[in-house]
Amino acid sequence: MVRMFCVAALAVAIPGAVSAAEANKPVLAVSPARTLADEVRALKTMDTAGKPAEALAKIDAVLARAAKAKGIQRLDLIYAEASRANALFWLDRYDEALGIYHRLEAELDSGKYAMTPDRAELVNNIGSLYSSLGKLDEATRYKARALELTAQTAGKESIEYASALYGMALVDFRRGNPLKAIPLVREALRLARTHADLTGDDVEQPAIFGLSLAALLVQSGDTASSIEPAREAAIYAESHLGEDHRVTMAALNQLGASLNDSGLYAQAIPVIRRTLDLRIKAYPADHPDIAFSLSALGFALDNSGAKDEALPFYERAATIFEKNNDKNNLTIAATATGQVARMAAWRGDKALSLALREKALRLGRERSPSPEHPDVILAEVNLARELISNGRLDDAAPLLAHANAAFEKRSLDSNARRLAGRVFAEDIAARKGDVSGALARTATILAPARTRLLDRATPRAEVTRLAEQYHFLFVQHARLAMQAGDAAQAFEALQLANLGDLQSAMSSFALLRASGTPDAVEATRRYQALAADGARLRRTLNAQVAAGNGEVAEDINRQLAQIDANLRVEDARLAALIPGYSAQTAVEPASLVAAQKAMTSGQAMVLYGQDEEGLVVLAITAQHTAIASSPIAPRALLNLEKRLRGSIDLGLANAGQGAFDRKAAWELYQVLFPQPIRDAIESAPDLRILAMGSLASLPFAALVTQAPQGDDASAQALRRTRWLAVDHAVSVPLGALPLPPRQSARKAQTFAGIGAPVLGKPVQLATRSAPLLRSGDTSATALRQLASLPGAEDELRRMASAFSGQPALLIGRDATETAVKAAPLEQANVLAFATHGLVGGAFRDLVEPALVLTPPDVATEQDDGLLTASEIAKLRLDADWVILSACDTSAGDGEAAPTFSGLARAFVAAGARSLLLSHWPVRDDVASRLTLDTLNGAGKVAVSRAEALRRAQISILRDAKVPGGAHPATWAPFVLVGN
Questions:
Q1: Is the residue at 615 inside a domain?
Q2: Is the domain of 725 the same as that of 774?
Q3: What is the rounded distance in angstroms from the CA atom of residue 173 to the CA atom of residue 724?
Q4: Per-position b or e across 237-276, b if 16+ CB within 10 A of its CB
Q5: Which ranges of 393-486 would DSSP assign to H, the alpha helix?
Q6: Is 114 found in the same domain as 209?
Q7: Which residues pair with 610 in a beta bridge?
Q8: In angstroms, what CA-CA distances link 13 with 49, 261, 378, 600, 846?
Q9: What is the pLDDT of residue 666?
């Protein structure tokens, strides 16, 4: 008897949730040679889910003929009718299906027929139907009986037992207990995969169980672990069922959802777009599966910064879900409405946000089979947060009490949603006067999140994604600390809120400095190389799945398994070679006392946290701390940032001759530096900024610190403007504490310069003049279309002339990947690249950021003209700093990745102590002067690298001989990262 999987029940309360992943095999044609009895028997195993209406018509036709015939076995007719009930189930005709099931059940229980696996399966299907109807007590009773009968008749290693386990898991999920369901689905997946591999039958089940496991892991809060089963399900489904099968589309959608919830939005977008395209071809416009993909795509765009683009996807999904009467997915309308509410809050429309939050909870409660359904408790937490923001504390408290009790039973203690409900409850306590108690309890509540972030067992690639999920929780912790006047807790909370890839990459740097033996150094290098290869392959893997290249993806999976095994070996070897290895590779926030002790009198550090309420800003100096808040809606802040960056873009297009929006730069300064913060940093010329998200890509040096006067397009007015760079040398620290000093200082400065690759004709805005590259092609042929950089060679030679001894220069035809990888770069303590930088994810064939070198005549795996982040991480460096005089070298792994997380992380991992990076494309003539002046200035006594950069910037700003030099697009492209 066919197994009726109710996969739709695992539609989880997140954007991009699993949708109705019913089987979709074509209905088999009947051979003319088959007898009517054979046709009846064949109905028992007919797939009724993929095309239920067609299946029902076929079943009715066969049963109509059988009713007039003699000699048909009654048992065969019973199971044929059971298949008819299955088809009715998939057509949402539940009452008709249930009547048939119960009639057949009664007949089978009459004592005329022996107990068989098929009979147990019918009991299981009745349980599935009750589960879909929300009658969970009845469902549990039938599922438990089915499990017992299946174990007796088919055995615990059978596919029938897998089906029964999965059915029980669905009931547990509907009761709001994914933690109880997960081991059942894991075992069902193991059994189904073994059965399908051995027999070639029931091939849709491993994919169904795999995508359901991924959904459950997301629900439990273990989002990172959900990616692998989702990816495996997608690959398996496509290779066995085809891309247009419902199970394949559901698995692809779940992969997109898992990537979304793990913060890998740039990787999620192509997967979800492909799923959406497939579903639009397969289903009518108002089908709920399309809504799942719309919601998932909106979520990915939303979190990658394209919020305005995301809103129509959210709204369309919410409309479809609200109108849809699919009993398996009724409550998802609550979460979809909640997403639209969050967008209203982001815009600052509190009234609309509150109304939508109330509507979301009403929809959830009306449609939920359980008051502890994930969609319901999520709606309760979100509404409570909105009520707190509106001062309605007594209305919020009971919502949180119910949600928190439910979360405690159904999720991991590190689940961000579970933690949010408890932290919001403490916010209520603080607002009612118990500030110190709320702060102490919040620290305890967030301890599991802190542990997971800082635990060395957490993969470094996961740290940033986890930090993003926990960011608003630690910002709330900082807010409570601010109310309590506890600067030390606020300092730690904001460090955790801003924990990113640079901080995790820093651990490998510290390790290299600490490992004194050649064996330890080599083991570290091997570990770094393996980790870099693994990161690259994982990015590639998701791209291959999105493109439908199942065989390539399987091969990558095998490579990753071997890399992971080798990493464990190297990890154990490092632990044996280096005392205190675990402590050295941890990412621990600094204490306020230690950070202040390490600061000089002229230094200040400013840390930012952002949530829906605005900004929390903390400034520390050697003697003082100051903390303040800026109440600004996220969209209002982003609009100011976009106005500033829009002025930069116009300045780039007009060679610095256009106007600059100084009003936006002045308003941003007031928001980012409230008066207590301005007072704290006033006498600190050395200013270090620690921020995440869009703030990290902001050119702080170009903020305006006094109300601007004159014409924004006037060079004279721009030169008279009080820029932040006039009073402060700005840098981005690798951490709250400076890096340890070099163990063996060199007697002389050494330099290596790489760049000026042999490319196409020199033009401005190079990538826009390379048609193949713009289409996404990053082959050697496409790279040759990129414009050459005529000033790059001169820039590198001028830098080299500032050093004594023989510099190492790889210029022009010598600037190849092969040469760079073979060069003894560890001998240089200043390393400069003058070339193009490409952003990972901005080009179809590029999954990670890269530097362009001279393309080879014939591309190979070792030399394709692109030095990628994973290849950079494997270089052997021992550099005081790396200068990247290229386009967009501060960008992350993808268009949506955190700034500085790409090339910067790779160079820090390879051994760089600080980096000079560009926020936007730098003019050839200006790049040479800025980098050389910074380099020369930093060689002077008592001049820091940040101060040297500041002086170089001011020199360009005030030099009337530089065309467009007064415009920030010309003088402010660089940012210093590190000490």
A1: yes
A2: no
A3: 54
A4: bbbbbebebbbbbbbbbbbbbbbbbbbbbbbbbbbbbbbb
A5: 393-410, 416-431, 435-445, 447-454, 460-484
A6: yes
A7: 615
A8: 24, 12, 8, 50, 32
A9: 97
User: Under a CB-based contact definition with an 8 Å cutoff, are residues 271 and 292 in contact?
Assistant: no
Number of domains in the chain: 4
Domain contains 267: yes
What pLDDT is stored for residue 711 in this prediction? 95
Both 709 and 801 in a single domain?
no
Sheet holding 837-838, edge to edge: 837-838, 850-852, 866-868
Ramachandran category for residue 942: left, alpha or beta (phi over 0 → left; psi -120 to 50 → alpha): left
pTM: 0.70
| Residues 620 and 648 occupy one common structural domain | yes
What's the pLDDT at 767?
46
Mean pLDDT by 10 residues, the chain (979 residues): 42 31 34 72 79 87 89 87 86 86 86 82 84 83 88 89 88 80 92 91 91 87 82 90 90 91 81 93 91 92 83 93 72 89 88 95 87 88 94 96 87 84 96 96 94 67 72 94 95 86 46 58 74 72 70 80 79 68 61 92 93 93 94 89 91 89 97 96 93 84 96 95 96 75 58 90 54 62 80 85 83 93 89 80 60 89 84 82 66 38 72 83 80 80 86 95 94 87
Determine the Cα–Cα distance for residues 762 and 759; give it in Å rounded to an integer: 8
Question: Which residue in the block uniquely carries the two structure tokens 């509404």?
Answer: 383
Domain containing residue 24: CATH number: 1.25.40.10
Which string of DSSP letters, residue by residue, matches 261-286?
A: HTT-HHHHHHHHHHHHHHHHHHS-TT
- Say if 87 falls within a structural domain: yes
CA distance 689 to 2: 61
* 637 touches 646 (CB < 8 A): no
Specify the residue for token string 């009895």: 37
Residues 146 and 41 in one domain: yes
d(CA 677, CA 689): 12
Token pair of 498, please?
């801003």
Crossing angle of helices 416-431/435-445, nearest 10°? Answer: 170
In a domain, 391, yes or no: no
Q: Which two tokens stand for residue 421?
A: 């409900």
- Residue numbers of the domain that contains 13: 7-329
Rg of the chain over Cα atoms, rounded to whole angstroms, equals: 31
Q: Transcribe 708-719 into DSSP letters.
A: --S-TT-HHHHH
Domain end among 677, 699, 732? 732
CB 775 within 8 A of CB 848: no
HEC string of 180-214? HHHHHHHHHHHHHHHHHHHHCCCCHHHHHHHHHHH
Give the residue among 280, 317, 286 at the shortest CA–CA distance from 16.
Answer: 317
What per-residue confidence (pLDDT) applies to 742?
53
Is 679 exposed, middle or buried (CB count within 10 Å of its CB: 0-12, 13-18, 19+)?
middle
**Cα distance between residue 623 and residue 599, in whole Å:** 9
Structure tokens belonging to residue 114: 């022996």
List, in order, residues 6 or more apart from 184 with CB less than 8 Å away. 165, 166, 168, 169, 172
Extract the tokens encoding 514: 């600490």
Tell me which of 863, 895, 912 is where a domain ends.
Answer: 912
Q: Are residues 110 and 243 in the same domain?
A: yes
Say if CB 724 and CB 782 are below 8 A apart. no
- Domain shared by 129 and 249, yes or no: yes
Find out whether 501 and 464 touch, Cβ atoms under 8 Å: yes
CA distance 455 to 460: 10
Which residue's structure tokens are 């070198």? 853
What is the rounded CA–CA span in Å between residue 560 and residue 656? 48
- 561 and 685, same domain (yes or no): no
| Structure-block tokens of residue 324 | 């849809």
Q: What is the rounded distance in angstroms from the CA atom of residue 934 to the CA atom of residue 952?
A: 6
Residue 970 C-alpha from the chain's centroid = 33
How far is 357 from 343, CA to CA, in rounded Å? Answer: 11
